[in-house]
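Supplementary Methods S3. Complex input for the nicotinamide-adenine-dinucleotide-bound model.
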Amino acid sequence: MTQDQIDRLAALPVPPGRLLIDGKWEKGEDEPLPVHSPIDGSLLTTVESASAADVARATACARQAFEDGRWSRTSPAQRKAVLLKLADLIDKHALELAVLGVRDNGTEISMALKAEPGSAAQTFRWYAEAIDKVYGEIAPTAANVLALIHREPVGVVAAIVPWNFPLMIGAWKLAPALAAGNSVVLKPAETASLTLLRLAELALEAGLPPGVLNVVTGPGRTTGEALGLSMDVDVMVFTGSGLTGRRLMEYAARSNLKRVYLELGGKSPNIVFADAPDLGVAAKAAANGIFRNSGQVCVAGSRLLVEASVADAFLEALTKATRAMTLGNPLLLSTQIGAVNSPQQLSRNLGFIDTARAEGNDVLTGGARARVDTGGWYMEPTIISGVRPTDRLFREEVFGPVLSVTSFTTEAEALSLANATDYGLASGVWTANLSRAHRMIRGIRAGVVHVNTYGGTDGTVPMGGVRQSGNGHDKSLHALDKYTDLKTAWIAL
Ligand code: NAD
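Predicted complex, serialized as structure tokens:
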């Protein structure tokens, strides 16, 4: 792909986004929401705002589609064919989807291409290929009985997703849910709905029957809440903030006790020991691990813990690597750090810098808004050292390009600092000592531990957190547990 192709796509007008209910594109009852581009703050288009009544229609259609079996009772091989077609269509429209997404959410195009359509196509393909290879079980009971264990779709799945990687995270939910035979109502984030609406259009083109996938756009507090309280939803899957995760659990308790699976944020430690195989490689990986997509990555290595004996040299290499990263227009192929998703997120990020200064932390580089003249929302990659476990920056997730640095002197201290958090999503360990690496893998309380790398990803590997980073896993065959129920059958022989 060339810069010219990107520029041509970026100049196209963006039609208003509609709700998708029962295969038809509809207006919502509430006032549409304006969509501003983070690149320059300009008005890109509008998306509909689904009222509680709109959401009720969408969930009722999803329920009807599930009950009449138009998808739920097709064979796995038939579902596979449709989902493979969808993966092919995503690949065919990859550049269009990536450019649309960047205009909507500000992620740099070089990353968006791989992480958005690239990843979404792979995810649909992977679950399409998997679903006709999942067998039921026969239990080892007494000889006078046959006990069968079936896996059945759960019914109606509601998926509420965030703005940082809408297609990638959307596909992590949609692909296994649809492959298993469920109907879905999807609610994208207010500031990143456009690519998911286009994905739904491609799903219809691929042959997904109308009503099986419905999309309701709108604010979390109205559209999202109505979905959370719906009596028609059997399972709610969510990626986003802990605050919203708590609300969803309340909604479930106040409605029909729907199962709720949460993928929440993190304050992931990236631990550099003096015996790391290559401190230069570790410094570059630490910078990439926090600053790509302006730090709006749930697994970002946002807490650097560095052994005191190498701290000065390491921070010098890290600062150099950070200053070498290109912050710019996210539509340029050369850009490594794009825009912050919204003005609210930018001002939240800057608020963390003010608190860090007030708490006596040192701003080594960055710390300010950038590219103000563009009208867009950009922030300098920021490294802050001298952060103590009691400081706000150590404890709270920024979800922006801000790295907190704390030094340690022993392995035990490193482990204790790593675990001194309410979260448990990801982590990194840099050491050439194999035994130490294994001790850290066992000791760190997190869903993911990277060793001598940061941020590996593959559809074959489950991804999820512990503690206040959530429950349940996306990706791999393990994700199917969320979208299927076990049913046992006893047959007297
Ligand atoms: P958010 O929780 O505000 O929004 C996420 C989604 O929830 C959006 O679609 C929003 O409209 C919806 N929502 C908001 N309030 C709601 C309500 N009351 N009822 C129902 N839905 C509601 O989060 P955000 O700020 O958009 O996203 C950033 C957060 O997501 C960060 O904390 C980040 O770490 C987390 N995140 C986690 C992962 C992961 O895999 N664990 C991945 C990406 C982002």
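Residues 109-131 form the longest helix (23 residues). Residues 269-459 form a domain with the Aldehyde Dehydrogenase; Chain A, domain 2 fold (CATH 3.40.309.10).
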